Please model this.
Amino acid sequence: MFVASFSRFTGAKFMNICRVYITTPIYYPNDKPHLGHAYTTVLADIVSRWFKLLGCETFFLTGTDEHGLKLQREAEKRGLTPNQFVDEMSRFFVEYWNLLNIEYSRFIRTTDRDHEKTVKYVLNELYRKGYVYKGIYRGWYCAGCEKYFTEKEYIVENGKPTCPVHRRPLEFIEEEAYFLKLSQFKDYVVKILREGNVVFPKQYAEEVLGKIEAEGLQDIAISRPKSRVYWGIELPFDSDYTTYVWIDALLNYLTGIGYPKDLKKFENFWRNSIQFIGKDILWFHTAVWFSLLAMLGIPPPKSLVVHAYLTFKGQKMGKSLGNVVSIDDMVKRYENPEVVRFIIARIANYDKDSEVSWDIYDEIYTNDLVNNFGNLVRRVTVLAQKFLNGVIDRDLDKEFVEVLENLKNKALKSYNELLVSEAVKHALEISHEANAYLNKKEPWRTPNPKPIIYTALEAIRLISLLLYPVMPNTISKLFKAINVEIRKGLEQFNIGYVNRYEVKEAPILFKKIR
Ligand code: ME8
Model:
């Protein structure tokens, strides 16, 4: 069963070739990344590291979305050229992803030369195939979102059409533009949303279907006059225009794995693609993206995983609303950047928004890491050193194996379904059960503590393997302390896999908050 559902995401049965392509949105580098950006990036990194742990070949792409009106204006405001500005700002993303131990395969910037080539190639193809025509666009635009709002979408404040996300008045724009014939792909997009099993969770497919039903699928303007938006990739068929930033941005997913230069690589990875996004950019990643791909003869991604918002007092956390939790503050508070990863993994929620709160995060840290898992590690390693001189050969206590087996399978199944927070919760349940097992068996009182301590070490090892994608450095440190190697593949998840533990240290992994 594990293998069967695993293949849903990789297109290949485990132990044959297993290859996965994982992407995050590319973020606007108009400011430093905050916890909202870390949310998606850490989640995707955990999934990528999980597949790596199983022995799969993964390609993990993240990066920055550097063109368009928003960045052009932001640079002008600071008296910089857009080029200088994005060079400076995209560095922050690299730095923060380093800090959070994000193991990407490529950090793509839409100002990269190969990306520019891909965009021009694609636009020429779309033009050649007759999907592009010239017309007049009239509409209300939000530069913060880089999109037009329809009458149904915007709100009215002080009598003015206003962006519901940024709470700023929209700009009315009327200009000549090139359009892309999305409307021709309405039935196709509907079919994929209804039957395709691509969008996960399904509720988001329903949401897009509802919007298409109400408003249809309109053609979109894919160009901006250079006189207004000069900061963009020039249209290959008309040098008076630049490419609309969203078309430019979506195509990063193709450039990232070699399209159109290395089609073999591209096809191998694209077949097994998992794309992570926040729900704010759902429309672009379904209606627009699926149509665009279809125009190029490319199927939709294997899976589009959508998560809900981090909110502050019920509002989406975001720079423009000034309610962001900074990555720095979190790292400072818990003194270990990997705790930020753990907290993200614990609160990750595809369906529902999660409120950011120090109280909740402190509680997660203290309960799960200090009192539960950290305590288990310290207890068992101290016992192993005190009663068995740190050397423990295989000696399973059958009584506890069934509990372990059961929870382990639940955790594996959750990972397999990309339900990261569920997987982490099951890992913590193992820890909770192991602590209870020690309390019940009292190895410090029995004449033969060995099977209890070995089995408890096996529990620690299982939890650690499950948490390895979440906190790779912290867990590596622990594995060193008990002299166990992390391998690749599923076999190491067998209970009783380790012949001998040599406990060299009794580490305190997580300190109490001061
Ligand atoms: O939209 N809660 O970039 P962006 C959850 N460049 N996730 C959040 C969040 C929050 N409060 N705030 C941000 C863009 N995110 C485009 C994308 S992709 C081809 C182009 C995360 O900088 C979440 O992943 O506005 C969301 O989708 C993304 O940041 C938006 O980042």
About this structure: The chain is about 50% helix and 20% strand.
